[in-house]
Amino acid sequence: MASDIAVIGLGVMGRNIALNLADHGFQVTLYNRSWQKTQDTLQRVTAEQRVVAVKTLAQLCDSLNSPRIIFLMLTAGPAVDAVIEELLPLLDKGDVIIDGGNSNFHDTQRRWERLKQIDILFLGVGVSGGEEGARYGPSIMPGGDSAAWPLVKPMLQAIAARSEDGEICCQWVGEGGAGHYVKMIHNGIEYGDMQLIAESWQLMQSLALPEAQIAQTFATWNEGVLQSYLIEITAEILQVKDSDGRLRVHSILDSAGQKGTGRWTAIDSLQLGAPLTLISEAVYARMLSAIKSQRVKAAALRDRPPATFSGDKEAALNDLQDALYAAKIISYAQGFMQMHMAANEYGWKLEYGNIALLWRAGCIIRSRFLKHIKQAFERQPDLENLLLDEFFASTLHKAESGWRNSCILGIQQAASMPAMTSALSFYDGYHSATLSANLIQAQRDYFGAHTYHRVDKPEKMVFHTHWLESAEEEQVDD
Ligand code: 6PG
User: Fold this and answer.
1) What architecture is domain 184-430?
2) 5-176 is a CATH 2.40.400.10 domain
3) What number does the ligand 1 atom closest to the CA of 129 have?
4) What's the pTM value of the predicted model, to 2 decimals?
5) What number of CA atoms fall less than 13 Å from residue 437's CA on the CB side?
């Protein structure tokens, strides 16, 4: 009997995707360059599961039903191109290649364009949820060649996570690199959420709260509007102790790693002109954390006693809960705004409510809060920005005073809180009908004759002032 699908790359994620597919009754062909990983996977296969292990790509292609469906779970980058090149001579027109790794959407777009020319259907599919998700139900963001979607939909939807209300966290995202783009934004948001939680933890520590109370605060927050996987695991992490009784987290080097997806999100924001301040700050904060030796030297130069706090700690924690929620809303609003701009730039038709739904379960940023985003796009499918939705506008309004208090407190306590404070600056800027950019325009015109528009004249009219001479203003040709 031929297999329904093959999985190439049996690292932890690939192995778990293969076992998840087999759990759902699909016959899976397994292939890994080193046989050891294939054996490791075989050891986990149960008697009810149907798998075929092969040692060559030719055997893999022979083992599959037509059209062939081949799921790559490889490290993003050159390995994906190399395996595709090896496969191509063995494939027939109409066969499907799925890239389920964290590939850069530009690579996915390029592969999709190339493979389209030779009638191979290519899908770039975001998969989130880590090891557990891959094994028992990830969030899946499929994009690429829409002709392949009906062929793979039954399998991908079978293995995907389901939200509390039974919605499947796997829906078609869009052509070309759209699936990997949405996964990239997911990861950027993941960076933002993690940074905001870390900043909140730092501020709590500067208030000299007992560690047990800090862990309990996160656990309590997880019962309310902030309910999310990342808050839940934070509450758990902050209870784990080393053998000396100190929290394990204090023994972990404070230098954050990154594989690149958050950085790609920030790079694309600059290219699109999207003001993605919070996620970008989260990426820079990881970079600042990574220059540990410089920070240690600089800290020795700053002659400051440790921060103390004599105010109302309960009130400060309540403010912080509001601040975290408000800043999180800003982060998601910015992420969705960037997707909006990307859809225009790259020619995708993204369904923003569905994207929020894809993230409701299975993935790292899963949370209760996402249902409000889905509802906002149901109310207004062409919503330009979540901050213009009545629910988010009134929620931010209610949280504003606590948010400001927390930012002020952070600055007083010298707690570095770039994400939370920049979110507030964004909020203030976004809600300002008038900004100070008129002065920037005047400066540009002063030193470079870059010209400007006037608020009291039609936008097509362009002006320049002779600043150094008579300060006379002239209308210039565009
Ligand atoms: C997911 C995660 C995952 C990501 C890791 C590490 O959705 O399951 O986003 O894809 O690779 O979380 O990312 P960094 O190394 O960049 O922190």
Assistant:
1) Orthogonal Bundle (1.10)
2) no
3) 8
4) 0.96
5) 10
